[in-house]
Structure formats: structure tokens, C-alpha cells
# Entry
Amino acid sequence: MELATSEALNRFLAGVEVRAYRMAEFSIGDADEALDLVQDAMLGFASRYADKPESEWNAIFYRILQNRITDWYRRTAVRNKFRAWFGNSDDDGDGKEDPIQTIADTKSPDPAKSLYHADAVVAMKTAIGSLPLRQRQAFMLRAWEGMDVAQTACAMGCSEGSVKTHYSRAVHTLRGLLEEFKP
# Structure
């Protein structure tokens, strides 16, 4: 890989890193696992597709990320079946609340407004998390990443009609779930 391509690749990966992480975190609900998935997707992209034209990088990268997320769901389902079968549980916490989370924010100009926004963020995260996987993918790629229908179809590995259907259903579901936060 020549120097110019390496610099362009570094810029591209730096540009998508945070959005890809948030997308993965919304999709699976675990920050550490999301970080692992994004890093794995970046490594796979850089090692296999850096020689592709830069105009195709965005769709290719998000296709890899979406495949990693789908694979994570499959692995988790298999693991959960074995855990249930052998009687293991995921309860490793001690049930104590984090003391940092209980400290008041003295910099907040309006506590009621901050609470409203925090509730809206939690509700949005929960609502996106409640969507079926394909609807969540279509919504995140179209609304979060700003991809057009063709790019989203390429990233998801489906037809443009499927993207439109999944996206439309996601938007209608989210509107219904987030009605109370409508301005």
C-alpha cells in the first residue's frame, strides 16, 4: 500500500470510528463488545479492501460491520442456549450502584431540561434496540450515516426495495414509540 492510500485509509477509519462504534453499541447494547466488533471490522476492511476505490469504502466498511453484528447475534444465541442448558447465568454483578452515577451535575443550566434530554436519549436507545435487526440496520445506515438507498442496500447485502421497506417500518415504529418526546 502506498503512502497516499495509507493516509486516506487512516482518515477514512478515523472519520467512521465513532459513528460505527455508536451504531454497534445501539445494535448490541454492550459497549465493550461494540468496540471489539468495530475494531474487528476496521482490521478486516484495512487488510482486504484498502485497494478498492475510496468512493466504495463507506458501503464496504458498513457491510463488514453489519456482518460482524449479525455474526455476534448468532454466536450469542448459541452461547445462551449452552448457558441455559448447563445452568450458568450471566449474573456476575454485585447489585451495587455506581457511586459516580449518583453525583449531581452542578454544571447543568436547567436540571429539568437535562433530565428530559437524558430520558429522550434513553428512550431513543431503547426504541432503536427494540427494532428487528434488519430494520435497525437500515435505520442506522440511512439516518445515522446518511447513506442513500443504493449504498445502504450494498452495505446490508439486500435489494433497494428491502432497504426502503425496512427503513419505512423502522421510522413508523420509532415515531410511535417516541411520540411523548415529540417537540
User: Anything to note?
Assistant: The chain has seven helices and no strands. Residues 105-183 form a domain with the Arc Repressor Mutant, subunit A fold (CATH 1.10.10.10). The chain has a mean pLDDT of 83. Residues 112 and 164 are 37 Å apart (CA to CA).
